[in-house]
Amino acid sequence: MRIDVITLFPDFVRSCAAVGVVGRAQERELLSVTAWNPRDFATDSYRTVDGRTCGGGPGMVMLIAPTREAIVAARKAGSGSKSRTIYLSPQGSRLTQAKVAELAREDHLILLCGRYEGVDERLIAAEVDEEISIGDYVLSGGELGAAVLIDAIGRLQDGALNDAASAEQDSFSDGLLDCPHYARPMVDELGAVPDVLQSGNHAMIRRWRLKQSLGRTWLRRPDLLARRELGSQARTLLEEFRREWLAARAGDKPEA
Ligand code: 4FV
């Protein structure tokens, strides 16, 4: 997969994509991340990339010409593979794991990062296929959104994760929050690792993990549960979790 990023801060984006799983995915040539700076396409001696916002008021806006030249250059560099251009902005659709999985199947993505008040609307209308937001808050630039997208997509590239299974067990991969995770020591002053995880009984371990995922989703993100149909086993496990949680809260001894 090829990802081109249009940004006034190319070093920031390159450094984010050079570490960890994404950095390794690049080394394994599963993914390439290239940054293009509109300033390199500005034609005036000051290499201007922004202008006053029309209609007055505070703030500057990224100019059409240098930004568009950078997008066109990135498209050309993609040597004809169909590209999808995404503008990171608070006006976009909220990023979800489902959207990440969809984008991870693309050949060529171009990520447009705004700065100042954003990018001239005419350029968005002409060159952007989709606007995506990483959350309902305002950042000083789209680069962090691009870095989030690159990381979430990069780790889903086949061969990026040493153990592909871990992507399947991700939070949200099945629309639920993840179960708790533990490592040695089995007993610590902070407590012991749950017995079932030391049992070696993989069916019971899978059951416990699903029960914990369902329970934590019910407690912390009931909106996610409302979005999905639970199978009979899941309903039984959630009922069991709820009963035990309510009992524990009422101070009753947990059932044997
Ligand atoms: C943002 C977000 C975001 C808005 C103006 C950049 C800033 C500035 N991007 N999800 N939330 N962008 O706040 O993606 O140009």
Automatic annotation (TrEMBL):
<keyword id="KW-0963">Cytoplasm</keyword>
<dbReference type="InterPro" id="IPR016009">
    <property type="entry name" value="tRNA_MeTrfase_TRMD/TRM10"/>
</dbReference>
<keyword id="KW-0808">Transferase</keyword>
<keyword id="KW-0489">Methyltransferase</keyword>
<keyword id="KW-0819">tRNA processing</keyword>
<dbReference type="GO" id="GO:0052906">
    <property type="term" value="F:tRNA (guanine(37)-N1)-methyltransferase activity"/>
</dbReference>
<feature type="domain" description="tRNA methyltransferase TRMD/TRM10-type">
    <location>
        <begin position="1"/>
        <end position="226"/>
    </location>
</feature>
<feature type="binding site">
    <location>
        <position position="114"/>
    </location>
    <ligand>
        <name>S-adenosyl-L-methionine</name>
    </ligand>
</feature>
<comment type="similarity">
    <text>Belongs to the RNA methyltransferase TrmD family.</text>
</comment>
<feature type="binding site">
    <location>
        <begin position="134"/>
        <end position="139"/>
    </location>
    <ligand>
        <name>S-adenosyl-L-methionine</name>
    </ligand>
</feature>
<dbReference type="GO" id="GO:0002939">
    <property type="term" value="P:tRNA N1-guanine methylation"/>
</dbReference>
<protein>
    <recommendedName>
        <fullName>tRNA (guanine-N(1)-)-methyltransferase</fullName>
        <ecNumber>2.1.1.228</ecNumber>
    </recommendedName>
</protein>
<comment type="function">
    <text>Specifically methylates guanosine-37 in various tRNAs.</text>
</comment>
<comment type="subunit">
    <text>Homodimer.</text>
</comment>
<dbReference type="InterPro" id="IPR029026">
    <property type="entry name" value="tRNA_m1G_MTases_N"/>
</dbReference>
<dbReference type="InterPro" id="IPR029028">
    <property type="entry name" value="Alpha/beta_knot_MTases"/>
</dbReference>
<dbReference type="InterPro" id="IPR023148">
    <property type="entry name" value="tRNA_m1G_MeTrfase_C_sf"/>
</dbReference>
<dbReference type="InterPro" id="IPR002649">
    <property type="entry name" value="tRNA_m1G_MeTrfase_TrmD"/>
</dbReference>
<dbReference type="GO" id="GO:0005829">
    <property type="term" value="C:cytosol"/>
</dbReference>
<dbReference type="Pfam" id="PF01746">
    <property type="entry name" value="tRNA_m1G_MT"/>
</dbReference>
<keyword id="KW-0949">S-adenosyl-L-methionine</keyword>
